[in-house]
Design brief:
Two copies of one chain form a homodimer. With 199 residues, chain A is an all-alpha fold. Chain A has helices spanning 18-33, 40-46, 61-86, 91-108, 110-118, 125-149, 155-169, 172-175, 181-197. Chain A has a domain at 62-197: Tetracycline Repressor, domain 2 (Orthogonal Bundle). Helix content of chain A is 69%, strand content 0%. At the A-B interface, α7 and α9 of A face α7 and α9 of B. The structure holds a DNA duplex (30 and 30 nucleotides).
Chain lengths: 199, 199
DNA sequence: CGGCGGTGTGAACCGTGGTTAACCTCACCC
DNA sequence: GGGTGAGGTTAACCACGGTTCACACCGCCG
């Protein structure tokens, strides 16, 4: 799951294609200022290129954002499914696996977390629908696990619980900094489990 | 037509001044689409008026947003201080008071919650600084209480914990709907306390 | 060598949207 | 009853930013 010699059309972390560089820089800028507040020129400048050069790699600014959000949702859904499968049958183990996964993702990609819930509304209707569908499927993974831990709770309550746990873990971008990464991870995981299993 | 001579400069909930109507409509629209995506015309239309009419009540669109965010921060800080004072000396009681307060606020004003952390970056530097200062003071109220409950935790850890609890409670806008208000309030409060006191 | 696809540039185009200007109406008041 | 000021309206102004265009550069392949 690390660097392959890139036979498959440049998707390396070490030597990213220009397209990839743009996507990363854009994610960073979008997270800092909001997608509507950053210009195409800003994104270009961030990778050492002028604004219009972007259009050699993306059809439009909106297409850039759409691809960004779709990727995030896909990564989360795929990762969640995988972690659950690897965790065995005990719902408590599955919960811990999901929590660890989400905590790692949030700590590794605070910018993506921020963009995902701030700029979803800037997408075109069809794109927004696809992203929301992926997000919903991911949430349902959590709901299924939480439902087994709270057998007598309504699905509405379980879903609200899932969203609350996301909110807790995704608070990372707000508290970024002072605490060390492993300490933050341990703290968030502990709190998330406590919140998820409360009552 | 609607104007009612209000002894105290029109700040009624039942019969709000035009200025007040605008602020509320704007908060709603900003929450739904983001401040940069809603036009002055949209805000005007929402209160049955044309766009430029806004300028009879606000110096600019940015001034509108600034006043909105400043009020939120002030209400939170004032409310937090008051609830702590009314809760007595036991930090556990103080925590519960803060949690209940924040839960009520979040459930009563999901739009304001959304706008506050999404559009802070759209403020002018001086306005943003004032809002951040008020927010920081509110956070510090929480930190003080949490510190007494976790005597051997670093301030950085306690601050991260506070942000995580905010994230949990402020998840309301995402899970809005299906569950009844009192049920949601009870669930969020329970989870927040569990997360705040975990370990 | 010569064309060709891929990438980048500066200039120009143009819609959108915040803001201002000029004018209107009407309740209120001396 | 005419002046006044608050609050609206429409039309115009203007800056900003996404997008397109025409052109340049360059590595590569036949």
């Amino acid at each position: 799951m690390t660097s392959q010699p890139d036979s498959a059309l440049h998707s390396d972390v070490a030597n990213p294609s220009r397209r990839e560089q743009i996507l990363r820089a854009a994610a960073q800028l979008f997270a800092e200022r909001g997608s509507r507040a950053v210009g195409v020129d800003d994104v270009g400048a961030a990778v050492g290129v002028t604004g219009p050069a972007i259009y050699r790699h993306f059809a439009s600014k909106d297409a850039m954002l759409a691809e960004m959000l779709l990727r995030i949702s896909e990564r989360l859904l795929a990762g969640g499914t995988e972690r659950i499968a690897a965790a065995g049958d005990d719902p408590a183990d599955q919960l811990r696996a999901l929590v660890d996964f989400q905590v790692d993702f949030a700590l590794d990609n605070p910018a993506l977390i921020t963009v995902q819930d701030r700029d979803l509304g800037a997408l075109s209707d069809p794109d927004a629908r696809r992203v929301r569908q992926l997000q919903r499927r991911y949430v349902e993974e959590w709901v299924a696990v939480l439902a087994r831990l709270h057998p007598d709770a309504s699905t509405a309550a379980v879903r609200a619980r899932a969203h609350a746990v996301f909110g807790l873990i995704n608070s990372t971008p707000h508290s970024a900094g002072r605490l060390s990464r492993p300490a933050t991870a341990a703290l968030l995981a502990e709190m998330a489990i406590a919140a998820a299993t409360a009552r």
